[in-house]
Amino acid sequence: MELDSITTSSRDEGGSARWMSPGLFEPERFGVDDSRRTKSSDCYALGMVVYEVLTGQVPFSRYNKYAAVAKVLRGERPERPQGPEGRWFTDDVWGILGRCWEPKPGDRPSIGDALQRLEEASLSWTPLPPPAEEGPRQSGSPSWSELSFE
After folding, report:
1. What domains appear along the chain, each with residue ranges and CATH number?
2. What are 76-102's pLDDT values in tens digits?
3. Which of 60, 79, 76 is nearest to 68 (CA)?
4. Of 40, 45, 56, 72, which shows the fewest CB atoms inside 10 Å?
């Protein structure tokens, strides 16, 4: 696979590399007829979008997009955040994301099923308490008590 094939624009059949399923990069290896986007590849991307929304960071944020693609092709997925950063990632939510990220398209749920399961998981979600203040805060970051949710 040539690295130039990872860069895309909205005019071609590509996508954003960090959110693309492995079959879009190497179709034959992952049992896909061609490298066109499908509902199954959209399900993979949905899992990455949910991860991004809940973490506030793009998938594989510590790596450039080429390294991120290499990780995906090796079967790696984003790490489950721990501590306060991982408060949204209950076992149910993480399990749903794991199913969305299955390497073979046929092993992924439908988007409707994934969304329904995420909604069900959200109904039983109990947030962790706010983190305790430890030392000086970073400049410009408010404490929990300073946040207004009105």
Report:
1. 3-7+16-127 (1.10.510.10)
2. 999 999 988 888 898 999 999 999 999
3. 60
4. 56
